[in-house]
């Protein structure tokens, strides 16, 4: 597959005319992708709890055949008792009122039992099967199969808070190297538009939806996405000369970078209409974008993070991302999509399955998150790589996805090994 970042650049003439696609026009992409159906079939075989394309149900919501049969039996038992009492009353000329009173009492007693007062119904416990190890990848390296955890959890990034406390207790920046590598367990799997070349992803707490930026010339968009179904709720297509990149939301506006056009497009958060001003400009490539609540933090594919003013887009300061190994400092390049998590800048690294945890004050690499094997498909060096991080700060939920992935993963972070 042709590398999207090496496609022929088109003329960067700016046209203010962009159109908003109605929700019905923006939906249905998943059903047209055979790959999405195949991915979901494999998930079901692995027992990951992937829901169907049109209906999402939590694990454990399986119809209990024992309960259904027992209800049928109890209903039949009541009918039999009523019939017996009726025959007895007719044979012995007992008054009809006495018969009805007896039936009412017996029905009430049996009804109380069926509601659990005389004993509980049997319960079927649905266990999530342990996934079998995945075969080695095309490169020969073993592919890790994600673990599956219950849906209730204490916090996706709680382990990061613990690491921060350990570092603070040890003297903070006095620790020379990075924290221990973190891994992951899958909490839940959601549908994701397999035609979306994901460049940016952000959780919106006010609507419980995602804002997602997609790329490629002629296919780029900014959209609002329903988390549960993966359906596109709102969408604005970019003009064909723009290659969409990272996005973030700040003070009621959505900011979306473009790759080589050096234009940041600005939208109204609620309508996706162009904001005032509709465009900001910069003098580098545009890759990832996030915010710390004061500045817009931007990457350009190098080791540099730029802290930009949200109104003028002027650079306030820059840091160089670096990893210290054995006392030596090494630049961390190819920094792509960004997300602020617990005061740290988290970054996808282009063409890798790792997320870098970066100290925003000086660019020091705090540690790595290894997501190897989260998506079982082997890409053999293509562009369909891990890209997209979203964090729900209030409920401490974490999601990741990739370019043209048919799935989006909610994960918990764990210590590796």
- Write down how many β-strands occur, each being a DSSP E stretch of 2 or more residues: 24
Cα Rg: 28 Å
| Number of helices, where a helix is a run of at least 4 consecutive DSSP H or I residues | 5
Q: Which consecutive residue ranges, at least 5 long each, have pLDDT under 50?
A: 6-37, 49-75, 88-94, 109-151
Can you walk me through this structure?
Helix 3 (65-92) runs antiparallel to helix 4. The chain has 417 residues and is an alpha+beta fold. It is globular. A hairpin with a 4-residue loop joins strand 4 (198-204) and strand 5 (209-214). It has helices at residues 23-26, 34-46, 65-92, 96-114, 158-169; strands spanning 20-21, 147-148, 182-191, 198-204, 209-214, 221-226, 232-237, 244-250, 253-258, 263-268, 274-281, 289-291, 296-299, 304-308, 315-320, 322-325, 328-331, 335-341, 344-349, 354-359, 365-370, 386-392, 397-402, 407-415. The strands form 6 sheets. Strands 1-7-6-5-4 form a 5-stranded antiparallel beta sheet. It has a 5-stranded mixed beta sheet with strand order 2-3-24-23-22. 18% of the residues lie in helices and 33% in strands.
SSE map:
Blueprint: E1 20-21, H1 23-26, H2 34-46, H3 65-92, H4 96-114, E2 147-148, H5 158-169, E3 182-191, E4 198-204, E5 209-214, E6 221-226, E7 232-237, E8 244-250, E9 253-258, E10 263-268, E11 274-281, E12 289-291, E13 296-299, E14 304-308, E15 315-320, E16 322-325, E17 328-331, E18 335-341, E19 344-349, E20 354-359, E21 365-370, E22 386-392, E23 397-402, E24 407-415
Parallel strand pairs: 2-3
Antiparallel strand pairs: 1-7, 3-24, 4-5, 5-6, 6-7, 8-9, 9-10, 10-11, 12-13, 13-14, 14-15, 16-17, 18-19, 19-20, 20-21, 22-23, 23-24
